[in-house]
Amino acid sequence: MTPLCTWPLSLLIHCLPLFLTQSITQSPSSLTIPPGGRVYLNCQVLGAGDPFMYWYRQDLGGGALSFVSYSVSAGSVQEMTLSHFNADRGSSIDFSLTSDGAFVNDSGTYYCAWSRTGKQAGGTSQQELRIVTRNKGSG
Ligand SMILES: *[C@@H]1O[C@H](CO)[C@@H](O)[C@H](O)[C@H]1NC(C)=O
After folding, report:
1. Which of 5, 38, 53, 120 is the most buried (most CB within 10 A)?
2. What is the per-residue pLDDT across 9-32, written as a single tens digit (0 to 9) for each?
């Protein structure tokens, strides 16, 4: 049993791919808030440098995927289609959507994606946002 990563060639062959692996995650994985509540959806891409990042949304239960926003690099947002939301590319790895007062019809599945260029796809992830009036009398 030879341990991996013990000398330079082995390091290159076995370990470099670990550092080149990209991941995309959205947090929280789902969010349920009442109408008028605050929304914070974050997407984080690791291992891809400073990629293009995108947001899309779809109504819960299906329907068309609609474009929300994209950013070509840290600190810049190129387009934003939701009027009462704010898109913020806080760093090379983070792209967030926030709202101070969500409507019931903002409920949906929110998709984040990244790419190295405007064409080449990298990866996607998703999270669910539910704006619902909570049942009364549940304590
Ligand atoms: C979503 O709901 C809000 C508040 O009721 C309304 O003003 C807005 O027009 C609705 N948006 C769509 C796309 O239906």
Report:
1. 53
2. 555 555 555 556 899 999 999 999
Tokens 């387009």 correspond to 79
**Residue 83 CB–ligand 1 contact under 6 Å:** no
Write down the pTM of the prediction: 0.81
Distance 105 CA to ligand 1 centre (A): 6
Which is the CATH superfamily of the domain at 22-131? Answer: Immunoglobulins (2.60.40.10)
- Cα separations in angstroms, 113 against 46, 77, 108, 110, 131: 12, 14, 16, 10, 23
Q: How far from the centroid of its chain's Cα atoms is residue 19's Cα?
A: 21
Domain boundaries of the chain, sorted by first residue: 22-131
Would you give the DSSP letter of residue 73? Answer: B
At 64-115, the pLDDT tens digits run 999 999 999 999 999 999 999 999 999 999 999 999 999 999 999 999 999 9
Report residue 1 as tokens.
């049993």
